[in-house]
Amino acid sequence: MNNLWKKIKVGNMELPHRLAMAPMTRGRALYDGSPSDLSVEYYKQRASMGLLISEGTQPSEDGQGYLNTPGIYNENHIKGWKKITQRVHDEGGYFFIQLMHVGRMSHPDNTPHHRQAVAPSAIAPGVEMFTAEGMKEIPVPRELSTEDIKNVIKEHREAAAAAIKAGADGVEIHGANGYLIHQFIGENSNQRKDEYGGTIENHARFAIEVTKAIVEEIGPEKTGFRISPNVPLGGIDEGKQGPDVYRYLVKELDKLNLAYLHILHGGNEELLSDIRSIWSNTLLVNRGGRPLEDISVDIDNDLADIAPIGTWTIANPDFVARLKNGAQLTEPDRNTFYAGGEKGYIDYPFLKS
Known about the structure:
Blueprint: E1 8-10, E2 13-15, E3 19-21, H1 37-45, E4 51-57, H2 75-90, E5 94-99, E6 118-119, E7 128-131, E8 134-137, E9 142-143, H3 146-165, E10 170-174, H4 180-185, H5 200-218, E11 223-227, H6 242-254, E12 260-264, H7 269-278, E13 282-286, H8 297-300, E14 307-309, H9 311-315, H10 319-325
Parallel strand pairs: 3-4, 3-14, 4-5, 5-10, 6-9, 10-11, 11-12, 12-13
Antiparallel strand pairs: 1-2, 7-8
């Protein structure tokens, strides 16, 4: 694992190693979408991960899908995130806020306005979502008009500016996991007949336009992008042209000189190899479920530059120290992943010095 401990420059950041904290929904935000004081402690505890990518953060009211997820579109949100970024910076870490518009992956019961969700096409994902009243089927969303799409792009731009105002080192655009951008990429979720659907280029258009707007607002060195090829979350089927949509998308994003590309790897090794050859800047590759001893394999084989870590960092705020020292890892309590207060959030133990 020697390669894990080599320093790397990413955008404006000088990272001390090749690990990063992956974005993970934790459901601890206040009702208005402001991060809680618990979140200040949670992220501060994990600052040794170097680059911390926040949980999915909605850029607008329509962007929210789950209960108690944070936002970054008003002054209260900015004040809440500023506490977090200051503490992470004080501990020597860097912080990117992930902008996550869920699109159709929402339920009116979970949002502040209780409106119908929005999506590329009026097609329900065919899955259930947790609400305060239990699991419910996700209803059919409203199809975005071309004017609506322009407004959503504007919301992303403004949210990125708000993230920088809150002290973040940058933003990660969430183009993965069945959410809005991924819904434009998907074949079964995007049945549009206009310039945002049909062809390979059109399926990638929304992702590219969002990214260009954010780059124009805050700069490419403060912008990352996440994809999840071949990952069928949220009822997404990318279809036969899916791999080619990603090849085209990555090629176009590469022209923008972003800080990094972040892949949640879905098992298509040929596509991963192709993306590595297309992408010029830092590549983060997250393989869920890999054994601890395989963390550095993609870096060792020059398929990645950084290995983002998810679940292990929930239960091990000092994951870097434990890995370096060969110390035993604490097992996470999955019952507390998405709900509750301190328990399962900021009460996991550190190694004794």
